[in-house]
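Technical note accompanying the year-one report. For the benefit of new consortium partners, we illustrate the data format agreed upon in the data management plan: each record pairs a sequence with a structure-token string. No post-processing was applied to the example shown here.
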Amino acid sequence: MAGLAVAGTAFVAKHAVQAYVKLSAPGSIFSATKAFYRGGFQPEMNKREAALILGLRESAAEERIKEAHRRIMVANHPDSGGSSFLAAKINEAKDIMLGKKKPGSMM
């Protein structure tokens, strides 16, 4: 009986370790390090790219858009040593997500 309990525990532990390794792999939704989008900016920003920049879904609520914008701008504001190009892209992403600017239009 004790041997069966040990074998069962070993079986469960093996599968738990395999699941942990699979879920902690880079690119997994549960990994500690978030996989970042590889590639540059599109010539004209669309809603998908705006959502990627802000780290949100395209259907995000207004409050989440504003919170994400604020959080990202704190880290990238030109007055704090950030890039003015990135700050402009972050602002454009917020405007597109909030519907203040049409995707692909020049302002």
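Partners are asked to follow this layout when depositing records. The mean pLDDT is 82.
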